[in-house]
Design brief:
326 residues; alpha/beta; 6-stranded parallel beta sheet
């Protein structure tokens, strides 16, 4: 047998051996993905997350696998889901939502965490500072809470006759108190009277929207919450049924028929989340990656819904909008 043929046969045998198979399997990096929401609402942003991974060298099914854990708006499930990922010994845990990040942080001090959070991560103890995170966590702050005042102002400009604006909050969310403080501060700054509505079940949402009409509130602001996001179609349908002008924090509501949304450009944010995750897989420590803050935002207006509500959208709003849905 010639030397070249012998080497070829030897290589083939090695590839078929359990040791070689184990080596190939170990090359597959496993990413844990923990979210307080449900998977059906994240399809298009997950595509952006996978793009970010691929741009930095990781393709799902080739050299990366993703283990998803969805709490579906039930925040009390997050600790167990986080612990499950830790026991799975994933290479990195990606989290969406501040509550998910806190659950992951409580579950492990060693596995790197890359978060996408809606509030100040320093305030919640996720990182020591934005520039120097320290510890095992870093990620992106999408500034949802910081944009509350902007959303309230946009709603007031769109519906100037609304003397009272209702604000829908999930009281079971660990982020409910800071959300309440943010919206109260924003309302005082512009002299807007608000009415707080609480909802943490589907039945609560129905009751809250019905009471809004009975109280004569002129418009509604829906706060950022995984529970609400998972029930976006229900919220949009109820707002249409009761003819309530409503502003949301992300485009998914508006494309589903909601009136207006303003918030972070989530496709860009999830792409960056994928890039950060890949950097961690490549060996960068979370402490060496500063927490990024969103710099790209989008205003989406559904003109069809506006016409159905009898609302004339001002030219100024049309001009500054990023997308108009006819």
């Amino acid at each position: 047998m010639q030397r070249r043929e012998f080497i070829t046969l030897l290589g083939s045998a090695a590839a078929a051996s359990p040791i070689a198979a184990s080596a190939q399997q170990s090359a597959m990096r496993v990413i844990g993905f923990l979210s307080s929401g449900g998977g059906h609402a994240y399809t298009h942003v997950l595509a952006a997350f996978r793009r970010g991974l691929a741009e930095t060298g990781y393709v799902e099914g080739q050299n990366a696998a993703i283990e998803f854990r969805w709490a579906e708006g039930k925040f009390d499930r997050l600790p167990d889901l986080a612990s499950d990922l830790v026991q799975r010994r994933v290479a990195v845990i990606v989290t969406t939502g501040t509550t998910s990040a806190l659950a992951a942080k409580a579950a492990t001090a060693t596995i790197p965490i890359v978060f996408l959070g809606a509030d100040d991560p320093v305030k919640f103890g996720l990182v020591a500072s934005l520039n120097r995170p320290a510890g095992n966590a870093t990620g992106l702050n999408v500034l949802t809470s910081e944009l509350t005042g902007k959303r309230l102002g946009l709603l007031r400009e769109l519906v100037p006759a609304a003397t009272v604006v209702a604000v829908l909050i999930n009281p079971r969310s660990p982020e409910a108190e800071p959300q309440l403080r943010d919206v109260q501060t924003a309302a005082r700054a512009i002299g807007q009277q608000i009415h707080i509505l609480n909802a943490s079940t589907e039945g609560d949402v129905d009751t809250a929207l019905a009471s809004l009409v009975q109280q004569g509130d002129g418009a509604l602001l829906v706060t950022n919450d995984a529970f609400f996001m998972d029930r976006s179609e229900q919220l949009v349908a109820l707002a249409a049924r009761h003819a309530v002008p409503t502003i949301y924090d992300r485009r998914e509501y508006t494309t589903a028929g909601g009136l207006i949304s303003y918030g972070t450009h989530y496709v860009s944010a999830y792409r960056q989340l994928g890039i950060y995750t890949a950097k961690i897989l490549n060996g960068t420590k979370p402490a060496d990656l500063p927490v990024e803050q969103s710099t790209r935002f989008e205003l989406v207006i559904n003109l069809k819904t506006a016409r159905a509500l009898g609302i004339m959208v001002a030219t100024t709003l049309i001009t500054i909008s990023d997308e108009l849905i006819e």
